[in-house]
Amino acid sequence: MRKIVLLLLACMLLGGCTASNKATMVNGEIDTAPRVMGLEYRDFEEAAAKSVNDMLASGAVNRPGGGRYVLVVSRIINDTMQNIDTDQLVKKIRVELLRSGKVVTTTAMGLGGAEDPMVAEARKLRQSEEVNQGTVAEKGKIIAPDLSLSGKIIQRNHSLNSSTQQVEYYFMLSLTDISSGLAFWEGEAPIIKRGSNKSVSW
């Protein structure tokens, strides 16, 4: 009898551990997933959507005479307390702009070098006798960018009272015409969160 009771207790404990380790998919249930004080995927989605909608509404990416602008991503500075990858924001903006049909992005160049190094690597095949030279990219074919996207993500923490804090994130972006150096568009997408002082935002 004692062995049976111990066996049942062991099964219950194992079942409890298994249940607590289960993961839950939140895709498709974005609104019901719990929020956190730090930056998360929904914040990047909201900031990107607001920025792109504002950019499109302003007419900044409407090229005179038609056609599409070529956009290059410049520096996006992370001035928050968190170790975030700014590419998470940039990629969403690029995807939405590409879908708009008004902008294409170049991956052949960037501040830290080409985003896609294969563009340059493929051109080294011009020296290879094993490669059909008629299929190798010709010289002078890379398109220079028209516009540059730069910006900064800022975080500000405020203590509202002994139990509540407010964390403010500002996604500040600029779209610059490379030829003239003039900003065609500038926007700010704030994400404001309020919660317990016990919650951390880094």
TrEMBL record:
Coiled coil: none
Pfam families assigned to the protein according to its UniProt record, in alphabetical order: LpoB (PF13036)
Signal peptide coordinates: 1-22
InterPro entries: LpoB
Keywords: Signal
Record protein name field: Penicillin-binding protein activator LpoB
